[in-house]
Input
Amino acid sequence: MLALSIVLGIVPLAAVVWTLMNGMITTVDGLFLALILLTISGAFMLNAYWELHDCGIVKKKKAAVAPKPPAAKAS
Output
């Protein structure tokens, strides 16, 4: 599933490059084609990220700032 998601995430990016190289991006149709392809690519890359996370390859980031201890109550 991971390999398929990566491949199906890269193919739309190649189509966007092809659209840019052919000059089709100057039309509204070309713009929407690029936006749809980028959305499809983003969805598959997000799925690939989740697969990597589930396998343990990508781990959660640790908190940059440690939480402060609770302040002492003043009497």
